[in-house]
Amino acid sequence: MAASVYCSGKLLRTFARNSQSRTVNTLFLRCASSSQKQKSTSKGATSKAAGRNIVLVEGVRTPFLMAGTNYADLLSHDIQRGALEGLVTRTGISKDAVDHIVIGTVIQEVKTSNIAREAALGAGFSDKTPCHTVTMACISSNQAITSAVGLIASGQCDTVIAGGVEFMSDVPIRLSRPLRKTLLSLNKAKSLGARLGLLSKIRPKFLSPELPAVAEFSTGETMGHSGDRLAAAFGISRKEQDEYALRSHTLAHQAASAGKLEDVVPYKVPGHNVTVTADNGIRVSTMEQMAKLKPAFVKPHGSVTAANASFLTDGASACLIMSEDKALEMGYKPKAYLRDFVYVSQDPKDQLLLGPAYSTPKVLDKAGLKLQDIDVFEYHEAFAGQILANLKAMDSDWFAQNYMGRTSKVGVPPMEKLNTWGGSLSIGHPFGATGVRLVTTTANRLLKEGGQFGLVAACAAGGLGHAMVVERYSS
């Protein structure tokens, strides 16, 4: 079916008409060859950062599990507590030495509205340690990290824990608004007659619950539908999406088997005689098996399926961020410097998932770097079609000139540098926790591979995006 069927937005319709006919596979070949280009002379510019150097000492996460599995009977603060405890065990940091804790989350449990505080208290941190919770859709723990950076850069703190959590096994379900209003009025009624009068107004339709909507509030469109339209507009086939998803699962399986996913810490599930030690969503399939799945959102002609989309995931993450001088004073050797970062926002209808395409060139410009200076790329994979659409946008002079105010395209990451330990499609995507995983994986890959600079980028609901430059610690 033609791309225009899905392209209700002007940008997507126009791109579909103007984009070149090259396939994504051809793009992959060009990406691979680009890594042979000589490094830019700007490399190393961000190593001379003004002000305090801020470092990532360590990052951990609980195993990321498919919703409805081993974590199903818990609450989100239970999982976040596990990540905090795992970080303390891994680093040996004294809980009294932590100045502040910032946690990101998206779908909040109403009983623990400040999840950072409840998880910290549960993990044994002092009740004198301030904690706050942030939310920014799928980049919530990215925001937690940069909030920590701000606290340290301003001199308010020296040592901050940033993290994130999402618990999709038991999301809050509300009573309908008419029933809520009636029950609230019932609670205030002062006589039996008044209570009976209110009860008599309840109608059967009041009993229908309100389920959380995995959709844009401003557009009413699910992210999956947006992903389908985006893939169609950029001319990305179902086969290309399945190939990318298979790549993600294969690389994640290889990384896990080789012990590279060292950010995972064991988690003993409360109330159960089980300790979870590994992610359970990594499943290497075949193209033939994947081709049998039906479209998940746009039926029957869509291309996004359960196989090439990230799955609903439970999990939590945490990382220790410090000023460099404080880290060295306490005897730590940091993993990486946290350098420049940007946030971007676009039209949530037409450009919902294009955050990486917009944020990548902006953060490179801010850091004084070029694409070829980056040794490690970690991009969030919401959908295979989404990541491939971002690569096509980044490789388009037309897109750069018409929508980014740039004279030419930024280019695309070489595939041998992009998400080589798997990504959100395979490892999982607990909305509020993924950002810490991306930054920690970037630092770990830089150390393993001997690179200097890494770049993290992600999209988020609301048309938001984030990118950050990470530099391997070398002192």
Layout of strands and helices, then pairs:
Elements: H1 10-18, H2 24-34, E1 54-61, E2 65-66, H3 76-91, E3 100-104, H4 115-122, E4 131-134, H5 140-153, E5 159-166, H6 177-188, H7 192-200, H8 223-233, H9 238-257, E6 267-268, E7 275-276, H10 287-291, E8 313-323, H11 324-329, E9 336-345, H12 355-367, E10 376-379, H13 384-394, H14 397-403, H15 424-427, H16 434-449, E11 453-460, E12 464-472
Parallel strand pairs: 3-4, 3-5, 10-11
Antiparallel strand pairs: 1-8, 1-9, 2-8, 5-8, 6-7, 9-12, 11-12
Write structural notes for this entry:
The structure is a single chain. By secondary structure, this protein is an alpha+beta fold. It has a single domain, classed as 3-Layer(aba) Sandwich (Peroxisomal Thiolase, Chain A, domain 1), CATH 3.40.47. The chain contains 16 helices and 12 strands. The strands form 2 sheets. Strands 1, 2, 3, 4, 5, 8, 9, 10, 11 and 12 form a 10-stranded mixed beta sheet that branches. Helix 3 packs across helix 4, helix 5 crosses helix 16 and helix 12 crosses helix 13. It is globular and about 75 Å long. Its main location: endoplasmic reticulum. Belongs to the thiolase-like superfamily. Thiolase family. GO terms for molecular function: acetyl-CoA C-acyltransferase activity; acetyl-CoA C-myristoyltransferase activity. Keywords: Acetylation, Acyltransferase, Endoplasmic reticulum, Fatty acid metabolism, Lipid metabolism, Membrane, Mitochondrion, Mitochondrion inner membrane, Mitochondrion outer membrane, Transferase, Transit peptide.
